[in-house]
Fold this sequence. Notes:
Layout: H1 2-34, H2 39-55, H3 66-69, H4 84-90, E1 105-106, E2 125-126, E3 133-134, H5 141-149, E4 153-157, H6 163-175, E5 180-184, H7 188-191, H8 207-219
Parallel strand pairs: 1-2, 3-5, 4-5
Helix pairs in contact: 1-2
Amino acid sequence: xxxxxxxxxxxxxxxxxxxxxxxxxxxxxxxxxxxxxxxxxxxxxxxxxxxxxxxxxxxxxxxxxxxxxxxxxxxxxxxxxxxxxxxxxxxxxxxxxxxxxxxxxxxxxxxxxxxxxxxxxxxxxxxxxxxxxxxxxxxxxxxxxxxxxxxxxxxxxxxxxxxxxxxxxxxxxxxxxxxxxxxxxxxxxxxxxxxxxxxxxxxxxxxxxxxxxxxxxxxxxxxxxxxx
Length: 228
């Protein structure tokens, strides 16, 4: 456990130092660019730099439902494998590198993006990223994708996992929450057995496809895709 904490602490310090250097470089550029305009402009630039530095490090996210989905009381087992590839193999996970796509911003959360992977990894996204934290109600994908663009690590997990597993995930994030997200991500299978027999659950990706499904159901046009 001490080895894991030392490693995380070292990586944290390295990340913070890189971010500090980037902010300092940006600040110097602002000072050079606006210094000729007088002391008032310089003072405003310094104030803006302080605000950006204070708000850019993440943290402060999460919601009131987090404790219901991710309970306290969990523990993290001692880390035995420190290289990603063998650790993923031991856990039965598949590592995938997905080529980044668009970095274009949207200006409204009502603009939903159809991503090519689930969970999404990159693509057009909302202009304001979600704040780091533990969520019981996940932010929109468009907000989370923007957070990933800024180097955040997101753990998506089914809210139907056994309580001890959900508690362990929370303990893992609480151990070092720097630039981390823990968010629920349900899928069709999670809904099976939890809905009345007279209702049909239809998978949709966007509001437009939801409207199309409702219209088709009303008109009786063909067979709708269902969660399975």
